[in-house]
Design goal:
Peptidoglycan synthesis regulatory factor (PBP3), Domain 2, single chain, alpha+beta, five-stranded antiparallel β-sheet, 16 strands, about 425 residues, disordered C terminus, 2 domains, Beta-lactamase
Length: about 425
């Protein structure tokens, strides 16, 4: 593990001052973590170590990982994305989602004894203390406070077991098939999830404005009812070290290893990276995934709605086909030349065809792999062609072959005409 920017043992962190909190907003490296009551031993990196740009997928020191477009969920990279693993404090992403869905940030929470008894990272809550849901959410997501997690669970669910049941019901409703929660904190390590499920969960969480605001916050003051204020700091070092970082959550237990969900936005592109089971701090892995997405992929319009994409033939008549919708995908820059579009016409089409009728499907592939399809609709109406009138039948000039009687009659007529001419 690399050395921290400033050594942060318990005693040193306890000396963290309000001035240091203010300076944290302007510095490019995270200062010591001011977690009461004794501070945090978490060492933060001062630099990121990532491989040079390359279209070759990165090699990671993680057990599982995924990189997605935050807006659409398109996967740009994956490694064991559906492997079920303990996820430590990434559990608190779902804790926050359930709390936000079931309460108002202004609601007052009375802290119970089970919250105070939580081990590990702590806001230093005391029994009977009253805090708002919003204040506890900051403590939950910035410094991963376990006492805040249990206080929220008790308030929203009535008790932790009922709250965890709601967490699991929410996971089922979201289609997270590889996820099961056993606590509101993630300390248990009996719960599990997958990189793919965590990406889906976090994308939904980031759609909630307060969640997105909290996870991009570097430092926060929790006003004291009595005594000194509490100052908390985000444990996501990428907020200081990675340009464009927007959150979201770290986690660690020995069975889970180091875990990270990281989000960033650069030039309007929003990416989300999940890494699980990293043996040392996970920020290099998160930055490597984000770099790969931002540097090596381009958002491309593969099919534009309304564009002419095919020419169908129906009963010998050409029918122009247009795309029913737009297909937009990220494509790795070295594969842009491999984009292919193939039209599959429906069987049994008959005239007339009305504009908007379905003609078939346009399949789009990149590097030989199907990545999407769109319905092809008639861009014009085509009716049954009008038949040309039949040419008039010629008037018969006589039989092609006369009978013997007709031949004799014709000879007699000729002879009579000759005799009549002789007497004139």
């Amino acid at each position: 593990m690399r050395a921290a920017a400033v050594s942060a043992p318990f005693v040193a962190a306890a000396l963290f001052t309000l001035a240091a909190v203010g300076s944290a907003l302007a510095t490019s490296t995270p200062p010591p973590t001011p977690v009461p009551p004794f501070g945090s031993p978490s060492p933060f990196p001062t630099t990121l170590v990532t491989p040079p740009p390359s279209t070759t997928p990165p090699e990671l020191s993680a057990a599982a990982a995924i990189l997605q477009d935050q807006d659409t969920g398109q996967t740009l990279f994956e490694m064991a994305p559906r492997a079920r693993r303990p996820i430590a404090s990434l559990t608190k992403i779902m804790t926050a989602v359930v709390a936000l869905d079931s309460s108002d940030p202004s609601e007052v929470v009375t802290v119970g004894p089970d919250a105070v008894a939580q081990p590990g990272s702590s806001l230093g809550l005391v029994e009977g203390e009253q805090r708002t849901v919003g204040e506890l959410l900051y403590a939950l997501l910035l410094q991963s406070s376990n006492d805040a997690a249990v206080a929220l669970a008790d308030h929203v669910g009535g008790d932790v077991d009922a709250f965890v049941a709601t967490m699991n019901a929410t996971a089922v409703a979201m289609g997270l098939r590889g996820t099961k929660f056993e606590s509101a904190t993630g300390l248990d390590d009996d719960g599990y999830s997958t990189a793919e499920d965590l990406a889906e969960l976090t994308r939904a969480a980031l759609d909630k404005p307060l969640f997105a605001k909290i996870v991009r916050t570097k430092v926060r003051k929790i006003p004291a009812l009595s005594g000194p204020d509490r100052h908390i700091q985000n444990r996501n070092a990428l907020l200081w070290l990675y340009p464009g970082a927007t959150g979201v959550k770290t986690g660690f237990t020995t069975p889970a290893g180091h875990c990270l969900v990281a989000a960033a936005e650069v030039n309007g592109v929003r990416l989300l990276a999940v890494s699980l089971g990293v043996p040392v701090e996970p920020f290099d892995v998160g930055a490597t995934l984000l770099n790969y997405g931002f540097a090596e992929f381009r958002r491309s319009t593969l099919v534009a709605q309304g564009a002419s994409v095919a020419l169908a033939e129906v009963e010998g008549q050409p029918v122009r086909g247009v795309a029913a919708r737009t297909i937009e995908r990220f494509v790795r820059i070295d594969l842009l030349g491999t984009i292919r579009r193939e039209f599959h016409q429906l069987e049994g089409l008959e005239l007339p065809i009305a504009a908007g009728d379905r003609l078939g499907e346009l399949v789009v592939s990149v590097d030989g792999r199907r990545i999407g399809a769109v319905r092809v609709l008639a861009g014009q109406s085509v009716t049954v062609p009008v038949s040309s009138p039949a040419p008039p039948r010629p008037v018969p000039q006589g039989p092609a072959h006369a009978t013997p009687f007709e031949e004799a009659l014709n000879v007699a007529v000729v002879l009579l005409r000759g005799l009549a001419a002789a007497f004139l």
